[in-house]
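ARCHIVE CARD
CATEGORY: sequence design from structure
SOURCE FIELD: tokenized fold
FIELD CONTENT:
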């Protein structure tokens, strides 16, 4: 596909950025739809973030994704902060508005729920308590999405209880903090288990949790996707639980940004998934 001088531009800002699979994904969609556009990786050091971000509209960028370590800095740098991004406490998608201002959004919660929906599971948000492992940015996005979708109870557990308590207080009602040492007990009667920690990721310590108390009907989701089937998912599958890997969250969270920048809402097809999987090891 030929890119012209009128091409619409978008990208992803991070430090480092070579690991990002977003350029591969977005450029696949651009080619698929025959859109005159490009999505580029932007390696931006933290001290240069705001300067580079402010220059993007003048360079013809319709917007950008932001990844570590810029998600929180982006909140302060944008002109308009979407209410959902404010609640989550991080920005991962920035859109250049018609008047040139920058709007910060967060699509992680959308990606999380769409991943579970597309997997075709029988789980529904109102079907019972959800257990969320972790209290970082991903956990916050997952919890906000579950709250908004109507989950009746969230049991939050993290290696640092203080961090979990802070998150629970900020999220408001319906969130109960459970000691990390009692995480297995929190599974009793749960309808959903979500791991948002890095435990179980390639190169990281394993996630140790006894699944005995987890109902056989409960859905188990690990947002880690390297390896694609983590030990948690393998053990849950072996005992008969439905499982959903984390790759779909990565793919689905990209869709709203692509629509805002390029005017088309793409779908996550098996072909897209296979194309991105070519770069995922493990």
């Amino acid at each position: 596909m030929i890119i012209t001088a009128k091409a619409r531009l978008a990208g992803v800002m991070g430090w480092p950025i070579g690991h990002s699979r977003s350029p591969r994904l977005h450029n696949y969609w651009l080619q698929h739809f025959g859109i005159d556009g490009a999505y580029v990786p932007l390696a931006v050091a933290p001290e240069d973030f705001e300067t580079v971000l402010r220059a993007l509209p003048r360079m013809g960028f319709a917007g950008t994704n932001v990844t570590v370590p810029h998600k929180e800095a982006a909140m302060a740098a944008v002109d308009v902060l979407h209410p959902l991004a404010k609640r989550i406490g991080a920005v991962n998608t920035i859109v250049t508005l018609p008047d040139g201002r920058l709007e910060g959004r967060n699509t992680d919660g959308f990606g999380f729920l769409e991943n579970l929906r597309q997997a075709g599971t029988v789980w529904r948000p109102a079907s019972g308590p959800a257990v969320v492992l972790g209290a970082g940015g991903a956990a916050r996005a997952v919890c906000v999405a579950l709250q908004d979708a109507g989950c009746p109870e969230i049991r939050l557990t993290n290696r640092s209880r203080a961090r979990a308590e802070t998150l629970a207080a900020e999220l408001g009602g319906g969130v109960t903090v459970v000691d990390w040492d009692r995480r297995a007990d929190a599974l009793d009667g749960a309808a959903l288990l979500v791991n948002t920690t890095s435990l179980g990721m390639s190169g990281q310590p394993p996630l140790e949790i006894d699944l005995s108390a987890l109902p056989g009907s409960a859905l188990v989701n690990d947002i880690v996707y390297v390896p694609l089937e983590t030990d948690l998912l393998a053990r849950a599958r072996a005992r008969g639980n439905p499982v959903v890997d984390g790759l779909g969250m990565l793919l689905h969270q990209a869709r709203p940004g692509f629509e805002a920048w390029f005017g088309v809402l793409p779908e996550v097809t098996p072909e897209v998934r296979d194309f991105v999987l070519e770069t995922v090891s493990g």
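CARD ANNOTATION: The chain has two domains: 8-107+254-277, 110-246. The mean pLDDT is 95.
SHELF: design records, drawer C
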